Amino acid sequence: MCTLLKEMNEDKIPFWRDSRIIKIITQILIISAILLLIVIFGNNLVNNFRQLGLTFGFGFVFDPELNSRFNIGDSPIAYKPTDPYYRAILVGLLNSLRVMITGIIVAFFLGVIIGLGRLSDNWLVQKLATIYVETIRNTPLLLQLFFWYFAVFLKFPKIDNPLIIFNSIFLSNQGVYIPFPLGNLQTFLAILALFFGGLIAFFIWQKQTQVIIQQGTTGQVYNLALLMVGIISILIIFWGLDWQFPNYDSQIQRIQDGLNLSPEFATLLTGLTIYTAGFIAEVVRSGIQSVSQGQWEAAKALGLNSGLVMRLVIFPQALRVMIPPLTSEFLNLAKNSSLAVAIGYNDIYAVSNTISNQTGKSVEMLLIVMATYLIFNLIISSGMNWLNHLVQLQEK
């Protein structure tokens, strides 16, 4: 038998029957076919440009002699119409990032709250959360943006008679003005203190979790420590940061200081956040309900209250189910931000559309927009995949 096995191992398998070689050859053929198609399409594009007397290239973006020649209302950096096109593209890029990053963070927390509300034992909270989800998810996003823009933000009072909330928030048809910290040393030190306070709270929370799991106690000392850190953080936020409050100047009839959120930005952020939160709420609800009822019963049998059961047992297991669909919702929010063009917000798509109309470089600008959204989504996907890897069970 040993001799037979040795002879069989010494016999070489023909390459056309070797599955490993066949897989490699198949992959090479597929990659070659894709590259060939790219070359064919690229050559066809260049030939068509030549026949039309046009040139293909991105040199116009950095040409200092070509000015953008259009204004951008929402500009987080210094910009004027005499700047080159790359400056306008950078402004649109930053505007898109503002909406995406803020929208993802706010939509996630709002979606978690609504999702937990759908599982609440309180009848009123559960019904309100259900109405929210069913209404938002079954209404087109573009229609919701139009509602927020034309029926809400543009209907605010005029700038000379703004609606004032808590004597610090001004609402007018020219935007929402809210307090914002000044960029000085006091604000920097306060932010630094908040950062270290967050680290301390994280380590206390981890230690409390270990004590609860290992000793079965509620860790009241750690609760008191977390409460103290929270109180100190709130004091730093209110009195440590050097807040700049908006105020109305009657001479120039303008609201000065503070942070101005234009109607377009506020509309896009509100619409995307509320719309995406409806879908995230269902992801959270389904993820929590995917955890077996036995986990709830076992945790309660150990004497844990509902909050600790959710934090230590249910939610960590639900994350393994929630993160993949959450990734899709975050990607959808990033892509849906391109609807900003419908309400006049100058994101990367709107700016690129204006540049293509001025220069006739529609293909080049389309490629820039496609590459931009592709990079954004790849970054989001990579971050969520890393997080998904952390929460998964590590099998040996």
List the helices and strands and how they pair.
Elements: H1 2-10, H2 19-51, H3 59-62, H4 85-118, H5 123-137, H6 141-152, E1 163-165, E2 169-172, E3 175-178, E4 180-181, H7 185-215, H8 220-240, E5 243-244, E6 247-249, E7 254-256, E8 259-261, H9 263-289, H10 293-301, H11 306-336, H12 348-359, H13 362-391
Antiparallel strand pairs: 1-2, 2-3, 3-8, 4-5, 6-7
Helix pairs in contact: 4-5, 4-9, 4-12, 5-9, 6-9, 7-8, 9-11, 10-11, 11-13, 12-13
Q: What key attributes describe this structure?
A:
396 residues; 2 domains; two-stranded antiparallel sheet; 13 helices; globular
Describe this structure in words.
The radius of gyration is 28 Å and the shape is globular. It contains 13 helices and eight strands. It has 396 residues and is of the alpha+beta class. The longest helix has 34 residues, at 85-118. Helix content is 68%, strand content 6%. It folds into two domains: 15-56; 85-179 and 245-391, MetI-like (MetI-like fold). The strands form three sheets. It has a four-stranded antiparallel β-sheet. The chain has a two-stranded antiparallel sheet with strand order 4-5.
The name CATH uses for the topology of the largest domain is: MetI-like fold
**Can you tell me the CATH superfamily of the largest domain?**
MetI-like
Helicity range: 55-70%
Mind summarizing the main beta sheet? Answer: 4 strands, antiparallel
Return Rg in Å.
Answer: 28 Å
**Mean pLDDT reading:** 85
One letter per element, helices H and strands E, the order comes to: HHHHHHEEEEHHEEEEHHHHH
Number of helices: 13
Give the number of domains.
2
CATH architecture verdict of the largest domain: Orthogonal Bundle
At the first level of CATH, the class of the largest domain is Mainly Alpha
Query: Roughly how many Å apart are the termini?
Result: 35 Å
Give me the side-by-side strand order of the main sheet. 1-2-3-8
Q: How many β-strand runs?
A: 8
**How much of the polypeptide forms β-strand, as a percent range?**
5-15%
Low-confidence stretches: none
Envelope shape: globular
Kindly name the structural category. alpha+beta
